[in-house]
């Protein structure tokens, strides 16, 4: 029986490692469970930024400069919408738009988000399995000094400027893991779970907030590891370090390990943070030091290999 | 008091004369009442083809080759939708799409179609008033040998191939004229109503099917005229002549005059049909002969002038 893996991901950092994993593991051997807390309704469309970033990344369609949307994109829709006085704070490329329209149509016709995602991933040429964490809507709300903000309002419209005081995952208490997610985590061949270097608060915590997820991860006989999204006290991309500072948490890899402590068996830190390995181990979490910064495809593949080796070593 | 006019229009032929009227009448002096029987929901969007054709025509944005949509259009959305296995029988350009998205958003937020249309027309630079015939949804159904077909399925998807046996205007019995339409037809300065050279069955009859419309036209003290969409036994564009043949009606200008007889005071026929003028007059309808084929902007303006002169002559 081939070893199989589950990777929990959200955002751009997660998609980078997911791409690496997809290059070293066969289509059947890794399942990606994706954050949907960023999902929102906009212009009548259901938009799932993390699913889309992952699908575009795995299919080779992603825009490498922007980090979201498609390469070779045009923006005629947005320009015309602007001229009509429409809402233009969230950029939607002409080609990208087709994905949101088709997903929305399918969801309205009664298909589950899991089924719609499978269809879209397949149509884009993604071979590996991409699973939304739940078919139920869970909406990340960022609590700030300016009041609660829907995630995309905080993240895109307000450019992460408001000071964060906490988070809420609306709908999580009534949500369920999808049957496909449960199955992936119940697989007898499951050899490990990898929490990708995504934002712990807004990319990974929404996944962990789906009822049953934490218990399931704790009950696994195979190890669960995470890769630190914090390197040398800073986030590679995005507001992770800023959020940690605002929450009064040290912006360190160690603090991320502590954040995940209840589900974690191992933690991957960057070479720049080698000095923190002992502190991580003191939490009862195995650690390994490697290059976690992924600038090239080779970096993504190397980190994927290192993560898999680490899982084998600590199983 | 300046004379004011109302023009009833739908489709491309109607939009051509409307453009001519907009060039010879000030913004306050002509109101366009537009067929909405073609409106439909597609990909989650509310699409109003006749309103859009008119707004794009009056704003100078229309695509002169296609006769619908915008000039200088791109089709990246459609190509991407096709790749995703979406429904692509109805073409939506990248820029055109913005209009449907913005309209749908505004309708869902509770604005009336009349208010949304006014906003869009203004944003596009249309100075004249464009009024949907009703704020209530009326859906033209084409009865055919293959069964009833939603209008756009008949017209676009099936390219008018099925043999027509009749028409139905679903929702018309529960619909009302908008307050703005009623006001335009109650205007003391109203000097005439022009039924544009549109398809009588699927562009004008839906307007006449809104409860109160026929009575209001009959009760007017100013004249109502129509311009024949049939010239020399053929339609300038579209399926009018084909429909007439399938319905067992002669494909003649005279038959169109007869079709509108209960509301009509005058009828404009093309020079090619000068021989039919006597037959039209025998119906108790005044007639005038002129060039109705509009190839150039000058033709559109000339026909607008001729129609207005005819209205003055028979008032």
Considering the chains and any ligands shown, give keywords for the structure.
Rossmann fold, homodimer, 41% helix, alpha/beta, 315 residues
Written overview of the protein:
The structure is a homodimer of 315-residue chains. By secondary structure, chain A is α/β, with parallel strands linked by helices. Chain A has one domain (4-314): CofD-like domains (Rossmann fold, 3-Layer(aba) Sandwich), CATH 3.40.50. Helix content of chain A is 41%, strand content 20%. Chain A has 13 helices and 14 strands. Chain A has a seven-stranded parallel β-sheet with strand order 5-2-1-9-10-13-14, sandwiched between helices. In chain A, strands 7-6-8 form a three-stranded antiparallel β-sheet. The first copy, chain A, has a two-stranded antiparallel ribbon with strand order 3-4. In chain A, helix 1 links the parallel strand 1 (4-9) and strand 2 (30-34). In chain A, helix 1 runs parallel beside helix 2 and helix 1 crosses helix 13 (297-314). Chain A is globular and about 60 Å long. Chains A and B meet through helix 3, helix 4 and helix 5 of A and helix 3, helix 4 and helix 5 of B.
């Amino acid at each position: 029986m081939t070893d199989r893996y589950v990777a929990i991901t959200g955002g751009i950092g997660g998609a980078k490692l997911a791409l690496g994993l997809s290059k070293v593991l066969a289509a059947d051997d890794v399942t990606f469970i994706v954050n949907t807390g960023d999902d929102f309704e906009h212009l009548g469309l259901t938009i799932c930024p993390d699913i889309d970033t992952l699908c575009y990344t795995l299919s080779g369609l992603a825009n490498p400069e922007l980090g979201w949307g498609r390469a070779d994109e045009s923006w005629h829709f947005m320009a015309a919408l602007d001229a009509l006085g429409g809402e233009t704070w969230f950029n939607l490329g002409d080609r990208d738009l087709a994905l949101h329209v088709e997903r929305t149509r399918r969801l309205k016709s009664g298909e589950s988000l899991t089924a719609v995602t499978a269809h879209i991933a397949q149509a884009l040429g993604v071979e590996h399995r991409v699973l939304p964490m739940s078919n139920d809507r869970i909406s990340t709300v960022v609590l700030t000094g300016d009041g609660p903000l829907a995630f995309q309002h905080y993240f895109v419209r307000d450019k992460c400027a408001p000071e964060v005081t906490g988070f809420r995952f609306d709908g999580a208490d009534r949500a369920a893991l999808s049957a496909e997610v449960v199955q992936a985590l119940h697989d007898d061949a499951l050899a490990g779970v990898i929490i990708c270097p995504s934002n712990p608060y807004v990319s990974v915590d929404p996944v962990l907030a789906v009822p049953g997820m934490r218990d399931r991860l704790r009950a696994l006989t195979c190890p669960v590891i995470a890769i630190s999204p914090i390197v040398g006290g800073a986030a590679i991309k995005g507001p992770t370090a800023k959020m940690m500072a605002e929450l009064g948490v040290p912006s360190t890899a160690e603090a991320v390990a502590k954040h995940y402590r209840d589900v974690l068996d191992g933690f991957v830190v960057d070479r720049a943070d080698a000095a923190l390995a002992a502190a991580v181990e003191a939490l009862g979490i195995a650690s390994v030091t490697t290059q976690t910064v992924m600038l090239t495809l080779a970096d993504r593949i190397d980190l994927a290999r290192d993560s898999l080796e680490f899982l084998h070593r600590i199983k």
